[in-house]
Amino acid sequence: RTEAELRKAAGATVGEVMSRTVHTVKPSTGLGEVARLMVEKHLTVIPVVSGEGELLGAISKATMLKAHMAG
Length: 71
What we know:
Elements: H1 3-10, H2 14-17, H3 31-41, E1 45-49, E2 55-60, H4 61-70
Antiparallel strand pairs: 1-2
């Protein structure tokens, strides 16, 4: 980004810059499916929601890597 873009972004609100399309998974989603979604959609974090849409947490690439390394 250019310096002007960074200055403009510093004065922006979350609502102005947030992603409006949110990809979510359920706690029962397999890690392989989560990894596929992260790669396809270029995501680093995915919210985890209940069947009713309630936010339960999030899964990140770092968490996925730790789970993989733990075997």
